[in-house]
Design goal:
Elements lengths: L19 H5 L10 H12 L10 H11 L5 E2 L7 H24 L11 E5 L2 H15 L6 E4 L20 E5 L3 H6 L10 E5 L1 H4 L5 H9 L7 E3 L21
Parallel strand pairs: 1-6, 2-4, 2-5, 3-4, 5-6
Helix pairs in contact: 2-5, 3-4, 4-5
């Protein structure tokens, strides 16, 4: 798949005002998120796990598609809840897969340094912010989140270290991935989800070579572009033709 400079913006959807009443009737649980994720969202917004929060338009549109492992490209304005829109379903899918793997391979399977999910961002500041949200959402799930900005994170470094529950979701900058892989900090053999957050920046001339090189060497079952691709086809090349078009 190739994006051209003058292509129509391949955003997931546009929500018009006529659907606002329908959205107000929706909850995160109705969108398919489990009670642990919903409680974490409620806690992060209201300070109480039992105080319900209404999904924003972008969350309303995106979450069901990612939970269905669909290809997703979406964009929305700042403050609209884009980060939760991809993190919440990705964390839930990792939680489900981790449980399946534990049943098949044993409880210690999670100790392997091979994440299920990879979130790629262009800057340290954004990585810290997204990593913080990911840790909040994963608190009750058993999904281990590692925010990696420099070397191997240590437990207790602002909560950014490798969780005792394992290294299941890595949040990092595009420039650190090759170094981490070369040093054996983690490997990507069981990677299932890739998110490019601020994809417009990651795919400009500053970052595009290292990002495309990374994607060409991955074989993942799903992923997301955020300004985010959510793919349910192996992502051999960002420039390859996918059999199922993004929605």
């Amino acid at each position: 798949m190739t994006f051209h400079q003058f292509d129509v913006n391949p955003s997931l959807l546009e929500v018009d005002s006529s659907s606002a009443a329908d959205q107000e009737k929706k909850t995160f649980a109705a969108l398919g998120l489990n009670e642990n994720i919903v409680a974490a969202i409620n806690q992060s917004v209201t300070g109480k796990t039992t105080s319900p929060v209404t999904p924003s338009s972008i969350q309303f549109g995106v979450i069901p598609f990612i939970l269905a492992r669909r290809n997703v490209i979406f964009s929305s304005e700042t403050g609209s809840g884009k980060t939760v829109a991809y993190l919440a379903p990705v964390i839930q899918l990792i939680e489900e897969q981790k449980a399946l793997d534990a049943a098949r391979f044993g409880a210690d399977y999670h100790r392997r340094r091979s994440p299920y999910g990879l979130v790629v961002l262009p800057s340290r500041e954004l990585t810290e912010q997204v990593g913080g949200v990911a840790r909040q959402l994963s608190a009750g799930t058993g999904v281990g989140v590692a925010t990696m900005i420099g070397g191997v994170p240590k437990k207790g470094e602002g909560g950014a270290g490798i969780a005792h529950t394992g290294l299941d979701l890595v949040v990092t900058t595009s420039g650190m991935i090759e170094s981490h892989l070369n040093r054996g900090v983690y490997h990507l053999h069981r990677l299932q989800h890739v998110v490019l957050d601020e994809a417009d920046t990651l795919l400009d001339d500053t970052f595009s070579y290292e990002v495309v090189d990374l994607l060409e060497n991955l074989n993942v079952s799903s992923g997301a572009l955020l300004n985010p691709i959510q793919t349910n086809q192996p992502l051999f090349s960002f420039r390859s033709n996918h059999r199922k078009a993004p929605r």
